Amino acid sequence: MRFKGLDLNLLVVLDALLAERNLTAAARRINLSQPAMSSAVARLRDFFGDELFSMSGRERILTS
Asked: What keywords tag this UniProt record (predicted)?
């Protein structure tokens, strides 16, 4: 997999989501608005061509 063109700030978003498992809490953790966080997650999904997370109640779980 090539990472050319990947905005490294998106890795901060991914790390926060993995730690918090909740979009709003992850956004708060890295001082982003919830809409900006949603946009960043959409960009991650597009880059990797995968949903990345599934919902389990209010938590986001990393897909396999």
From this structure: DNA-binding, Nodulation, Repressor, Transcription, Transcription regulation
Q: How many CB atoms neighbour CB 9 within 10 A?
A: 12
pTM for this structure? 0.77
Segments forming the whole domain that contains residue 58: 9-62
CATH of the domain at 50: 1.10.10.10
Residue in 61, 17, 18, 53 with CA at minimum distance from that of residue 37: 17
- Residues 23-49 have pLDDT tens digits of 899 999 999 999 999 999 999 888 888
**Using the 8-state DSSP alphabet, how is residue 30 labeled?**
T
